[in-house]
Amino acid sequence: MQAPKAKKIAQLLETHGHQRTDNYYWMRDRENPEVIAYLNAENEYLKTSLKSTEEFQEKLFQEMKGRIKEDDESVPYLKSGYYWYVKYETGGEYPLYCRKKGSLDAAEEIFLDVNLLADGKSYYQVGGTAATSDLKTLAFAADEVGRRIYEIHFKDLETGEILADHIPAITGNFAWATDNQTLFYSKQDPDTLRSYQIYSHRLGTSTANDLLIYEEKDEEFSCVVHKTKSEKYILVHSESTISSEMRFLDASNPTGEFTLLQARLPHLEYAADHYQDHFWIRTNLEAQNFKLVKAPISTPQLENWEDVIPHRDTVLLEDFDIFSNFLVVQERANGLCKINIKPWDGTAGHSLEFDDETYTAWISTNPEFDTSILRFGYNSLVTPASTFDYHMVTKEKTLLKQQEIVGGYDASDYTSARIWSKAADGLMVPISLVYKIDKFSPDGSNPLLLYSYGSYGFSMDAYFSSSRLSLLDRGFVFAIAHIRGGEDLGRIWYEDGKMLKKRNTFTDYITCAEHLIGEKYTSPEHLYAMGGSAGGLLMGAVMNLRPDLFNGLIAAVPFVDVVTTMLDESIPLTTGEFQEWGNPKDKEYYEYMLSYSPYDNVEAKDYPNLLITSGLHDSQVQYWEPTKWVAKLRELKTDSKLLFLHTNMDAGHGGASGRFNSLKEMALEYTFLFYLEKLI
């Protein structure tokens, strides 16, 4: 079957006196039957080209699914006299939300069965869920398209009845007041999907009567609503990439006026929680790596902020949790997570100890104040996801649950490591990697998949994946490059990989790839790159810069048409990201972004084998970006290597809904790699 050819219609785009010709601009029209026909043709081309692998794809899907315990449940947590948990049952794609009153031995109540709600729907995703303080009414948000546009529904937890109230076209973010009748929720702009309004709804009334509580008029900001851990205050949090502003309201007075905590200032970020008579605030005020301060509720403005944990140059303060007798802090030092316990009585604090060389640890769900038990999560490249209770006085650690790998798993069969690569400017970039010991040969012959992201300050931690075992057991090395643009080595790591320093993200990744080749973990003939969303931008940029380094590349829902997207303020996310990428209406940023934008820099040259995925209803990276990119690559590339575009016609940015459906997409990605390695 011939690869589909897209028609070319020249569209002249001019900015700052510079002209670009976009032959595939017409693909932005989702309602154009020719666009849908092209997407279907690309899907059919992939299916036909890989028809010989269909049986293997199904086998791989069943293999990955077979490792997952179908009858499974989360570790229950205690809140308001109930133990709350989520479980799955054999044959079910979707979760069941459950609770038990007073004791884990009490009768189980399934208060939300998502399998029933999703029946007959091609896509269904439950977002937020929250019960009223009296535990009589549940609010839950559902998305039936995959565009992250939710509808809030209400359920009577005593009768099981779904109430007539429903709130359409909202973000899925909400919080109850303590009157058990008033729900605060955030709403998005219908075109840009920017969360910009906070409303209040009273049960039993029409949404037409909902009150607009707050509107965020600055297009670089979005806003959300949530409740403090104490449940005493409702918080409205407005933020941009570089600035924050919060308002608070006594949750028992839902018709009252919100009070400004601290007015927004350029480059001032903060987030607050409540304990006793203070707000506790994580902020970057004169603190690049953030610090913890407190402020009286009566006078919470910046001039009254008092340091609790001062700024440290080498430690990033990521999160904190408050208990009646302890302050718990989640930090990051030298690229690794730390959890520190600090008693309020002034006695010496301590840190939790972890054994793996590279790992992930985090503060988990801890809704109760009056407890000496901290719940935290942990995993590594070789350790399945684990939930612990830690006694903060006795220092006793109890494993409550570790992810069960059906069919068995022996961690001693695998090894993980953290190595360092020298970046182009001399900085050292960490790489986490894992492989199966008896499959590894230190001669460069192993296939290796190098994954990364590198944007928005998201640290890419070393995590366990049961599905990844299908790669490792067939001889693949899996590696994560902790490149700039994330916060893996502190806030400076992020700021050195954004705006006019974005190219550091790409060159870091390239030097990591070169280092892995130089250390004989793999070779260019067996090296594969993978990234999604902003990590898809990374993929497009590095393959333009160094296509010779990779045999294959997977770009999932990739952000690749950087300049055109960032010039179009009607597209979701654009205005809120000017402080991440820059605003191309400024000529300096236009020229810099144009220098690396993957779509604009496609050339007539050889490229690696490529698999590119997309979602028709994607609200974050519009489907036309990868679609146009593939069309332009087909037009210009000079090689005869594989180029596939797979568009999920029923889903958005996160891919298929359901517990196992997403594994089918992963099976396709892995099959692509095994096909290139001639392992099928």
Automatic annotation (TrEMBL):
Residues covered by the Peptidase S9A N-terminal domain: 4-403
Keyword Protease: yes
Single Gene Ontology MF annotation: serine-type endopeptidase activity
One of the GO BP terms on file: proteolysis
Annotated Peptidase S9 prolyl oligopeptidase catalytic domain residues: 464-673
Pfam families (alphabetical): Peptidase_S9, Peptidase_S9_N
Keywords per UniProt: Hydrolase, Protease, Serine protease
Family: Belongs to the peptidase S9A family.
PANTHER family in alphabetical order: PROLYL ENDOPEPTIDASE-LIKE, PROTEASE FAMILY S9A OLIGOPEPTIDASE
Known role: Cleaves peptide bonds on the C-terminal side of prolyl residues within peptides that are up to approximately 30 amino acids long. Has an absolute requirement for an X-Pro bond in the trans configuration immediately preceding the Pro-Y scissible bond.
Protein name: Proline-specific endopeptidase
